[in-house]
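Input record (Table S2, row 421):
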Amino acid sequence: MKLLTYYVCSFLMLSMSLVTSQTIYDESKVPTFEVPDPLVAVSGEKINSVQKWETVRRPELLKFFENNVYGKLPKALEIDSYTILEQDSNALNGKAKRKQVQLTFKNNNKILSFTILLYIPKNLDKAPVFLGYNFYGNHTITEDKAVLIPTAWANNNEAFGIENHTLTEESRGKRTNRWALEKILDAGYGLATIYYGEVDPDKNDFSDGVHNLLYQETQSQPKPDEWGSIAAWSWGMMRALDYFEKDPDIDASKVIAFGHSRLGKTSLWAGATDERFAGVISNNSGCGGAALSKRKFGETLGVINERFPHWFCDNFNEYSDNEEALPIDQHQLLALIAPRPLYVASAEEDEWADPRGEFLSTYYASSVYELYGKKGIGTKVMPKVNEPIQNTVAYHIRTGKHDVTDYDWENYIKWANAFVK
Ligand code: GTR
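Output record (beta-D-galactopyranuronic acid complex):
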């Protein structure tokens, strides 16, 4: 047994070191490749008008991402009912209204519920809102004792006191640093957040979460072209938006989809598929998010598909260690958000997410924004650290690591004031 453990450990260490040694962190090792042109259709037709973009090119790109990257939704699943679990018009020392709204979905004799935590500035009739998922429960984003603790499955995390996949009081307020709540409210925006594990637990298991509600008889996991977890989380953001359309305190025409890392991949896909989102923010989304896959810098498709086989649809495995074969790249995902405002942000020490690949993606998406008469990123020269470029397409790289900071939020707010509000 000991010997077996030894062999297994050695094998694991060897494969880990292979992954690290093969990881490209050197610009001179980035392969040369042709960037697929968002403005040339599969047929070869040049796309030179908004009309052609919207009727020919956008639909074919969207379809490719649906069938081969994130996976398509098997069918529509609308809100069955919603319940305001709790509300207080004098939350956060009188600064905000707080609401906790539970949305419930039913199908196949199965039920799924998730809870939106909402803070809205008190003095506003209808607030524009940033909507984004959190990783460890709504109660982690604030010290506010009234915020309910989700009961859904969670990843264990010693620092957060999460054992047995169960969220507890111990993690209350542990992620306040990632949510500049006061700044957001002071700037006249609401903040809405949802624990992503309530929509789909983040593990390679398709017997739980929303997938489970939409299987056909005898089906127990999505088909190769059907939704993985990122598409499921994006679905949840769209259903939150459905609810916002009914909430008199919210201006549903000014909802900005926000997300960090895997949840930034999620906000991009939500914004690309649902044109009701007024703006989209990708914070350090990296591989499978804003970064160009064909650069193979940092995390690659082979690595992400192996480590997180449930995030994308099975058809995406086709491109693991085979990025050359991809007829698209992630700048075309960004282009699907045009002409709506888009902000991509990187961090200097987050090489795994390929900051340059994220920047170049905004550059190559910009031709579609320009077709609409909007200002894209405007330069192929990557800006210096902490020197944001803010047009309809915005980008910054800040000092520091893979994270969401006040600096990020200050810039998102400034850009949202100019381009969304
Ligand atoms: C990493 C993963 C990234 C990113 C990140 C996160 O392990 O390789 O693609 O999504 O997780 O979501 O925190």
